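Record passed on underneath.
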Amino acid sequence: MLSPLQIARNKSFLGRKDELAALHSVDASPEASLVVVYGRRRVGKTELIEQAYRDRNPLKFEGIEGGAAPRQMEHALYQLSRYAGDAAIQKLRFSRWLEFFDYLSRFVDRGTWTLYFEEVQWLAAYDEEFVADLKHAWDNALRRNPKLVVVLCGSAPSFMAGKIVRSRALYGRVSREIRLGPFPFPDTAAFVGAHRSLFDAFEAQLALGGIPEYLKLVRGESSTYLALCRHAFLPNAYFLNECDRIFVSSLARSAHYRTTIEFLAARRSAARREIAERCGVKAGGNLTALLDDLESCGFIEGVIPYDKGPASKLVRYQISDPYLQFYYRFIQPQRRAIDSGAFADRPTAALPLHHYQQWLGYAFERWCRAHHRRIAELLGFGGVRYRSGAWIERSAGEGFQFDLVFDRADHVLTVCEIKYTTAPAGLETAPIFARRTDALAARRRTTIERVLISAAGAEPELARSGGFDRVLTLGDLVGGA
């Protein structure tokens, strides 16, 4: 008789409604279910699974970082011995996972059970034998209990997607696949506390990307800025060491992952050829796999000029994860000083407000480009086909750049100026923007719609000047969340 893991209900658990519905839907199935959940480190996978299945007699088996297959099986047997209350089980020794799965299946052959395998990439030691043996056990034993749910969870998305979801061994057997992403802003705002201003809550989203474990540190401070300072610029601070932990949990297989991230941090963006040369990787399948792994984790993104097709060779890669952007901009350059305690008395000295505000401005531009569909809907052309992105115009004369442009199928260019300040944009914004849009209109000979996206809106004089056709505020963008 097994004693399952006891999990208390988390009364403060919020969001994840679609994911919870998907996980609960297996209860209505007349058959056993195989569920796969994956996502970057600290995104909330464990809490989601445990809250969803806490009443389904969960048996949790956790992988050990860096352990080879024999060590992983020994640990799994130890955990099973605890559930069974039988110390003799931990003395068993198996040479293959197939033997472990066959043995485990005897304990869960009837009744409601949830087998929860956590950090599968570690359990499997990144080897496909784990998956192949699970397939055999599933087909011949586990699936015969219609009330059984098997959950495979991991923080190495490329392994989870490539070696499990798309594996030939488990083809057609996975009932639910959930790639868990960060909180959207409404959930972030609720998580950090309703007492916070819209700006402070959104600042947490820009700086930490909606990662629940990171946001917990914000909840304990009076402002996002102070939370970042106190948890980034003191010796052994959480955000000081989190970068190292990321490359252990999600990207431990190759040093090229970190080399690529550091190269992009130094260059801001780079082409495939440049990354291949820096990492010493052939510009073929190995490089593609490397970049795909980093993209699947949400750490980088490939950016193609909006007027080019998806197959364009002009793609440039850049860091997309907000925490990593913050780390390489403010923490990594001061690492020695932080470790020595240089900011122990006043951690805010490591993050001058004017530098931080400038960085938030760039982060807001990236956020707006990522949420272009929301902007298109607010401006009334969500039903029109368009291409969007930053615009850089170079010529023999004066070049110019726009933060965000929508090139619409109805022959209109919607050109956006993006400002992230706590004060409304002033009248001085209009003439500079007008010169650039006039030059663009002369070259493109098309209708130009001028839009100001200003977090705090526009001063009355600017609004009356006619320099912009529309003004969107932060409140507009997030829907009053």
Summary: The CA atoms of residues 1 and 34 lie 23 Å apart. Residues 353-370 form the longest helix (18 residues). The first strand starts at residue 33 and ends at 38.
